[in-house]
Specification:
It is built from twelve helices and 22 strands. With 449 residues, it is α+β, with helices and mostly antiparallel strands. A hairpin with a 2-residue loop joins β4 and β5 (75-81). The longest helix has 13 residues, at 27-39. It is globular, with a radius of gyration of 21 Å. The relative contact order is 0.15. The structure holds shikimate-3-phosphate (S3P).
Amino acid sequence: MTSNTPQPATFKPSGPLGGKISVPGDKSISHRALILSALAVGKSRITGLLEGEDVLATADALRSMGAKIEKKDDVWTVHGVGVGGLMQPANAIELGNSGTSTRLLMGLIASHPISATFTGDASLSKRPMGRVIEPLSQMGADIAARETADQKSCLPLTVRGICPAIPIEYRLPVASAQVKSAILLAGLNTPGITRIIEPVMTRDHSETMLKGFGADISVETDADGSRIISLTGEAELQPQKIKVPGDPSSAAFLVVAALIVPGSDIIIENVGINPTRAGLFEVLQNMGGDISFKKKRVVGGEPVADLHVKHSQLSGIDVPADIAPSMIDEFPILFVAAAVANGETTTRGLHELRVKESDRLSQMAKGLSDLGVELTEKDDGLVIQGSGGKLLSGGRAKPVIETALDHRIAMSFAIAGLMTKSGLSIDDIWPVETSFPGFDDLVKSLTDS
Ligand code: S3P
């Protein structure tokens, strides 16, 4: 799954971007579509599924637990085993780079009478799993993880599920849709009410899709504004037809490219604009970005639109910390936009960025500094002085940017390359396959038009 040989790539300054394109399916929704379909009784059909390595890892894992998953033409068919029906996998489950696969599948297995060992690549093996182990252990699962020198619980780990598990009420200590979803998935095969209190709202695809599959799930808001999500198990899920919208986190790279390269004018069709995911678009509009949402509609419970984006001279802003959960994956590319904006952009409240596929604050700070960008790396954010134009003004010839097995770092610098004086190279483009197969060709098709 993981390529052992790094694939360096070079990105040259570009002329205007133009044309009408679409981006691959939403990664978060694709994982959930496969998992819930595998738990329904009968045959679900999925179109628009992201065929990136992360999602394919989830599909393989579900196959190893008894689900039949096939693709014919553009349709993925999943024959589910029913809630409670997962089988013991024969071998360890290799999840490559995918934190979402790992955390969601840990929840799934926690309330089934099976056990599974998870392994991953060097990036995934560094990521903290204690945040999922804690609530799943309260539900009765037995999870043994590797402990690191700085006391983190990491992969490889083994989950021994329990059936019946104990329903819990759990207040999320970190704003994490993966933790929320792991508990909900465990709750599906747990008799009684599993309740999650979410003080800060995160992406709500699991709640929406669970409702669509017929689970007994409700969401209320308490007096202090926290969301209370209650799921009654054991659930019976009905098979569905699911259309996965284009991923706003992938569209983000092309939106920023069109905003920053002079003369650009593009349309990106069929992009998910769920408000729990659309923070970047709002921030870019506040920076002066010309982004308009055309043909707004709802597909499978998710809001979708076509995005029309035109080049705009951006101005730096102070990005409020409370918008962070709705654009948590988009900060690397926002930092690129900030680097070419006029004036200062301040970001804060971003501790979570340090435990993504890489430490995204430090990787972005290093790479942008190499391109001559003046910035300060704080504990919880970056403060960036925009160049107001081209990058590489520091004058270092063609630096090789380190991407640390992180797809979003690789794509962010690919886009930054379009605005350099003489191009830049990154050490490894391969991780882009995890979320955005065809990224390089799509950028080329826009710049060649
Ligand atoms: C995701 C949730 C987010 C996000 C990740 C996908 C999901 O992670 O960064 O790319 O699909 O639930 P956290 O739950 O760690 O915030």
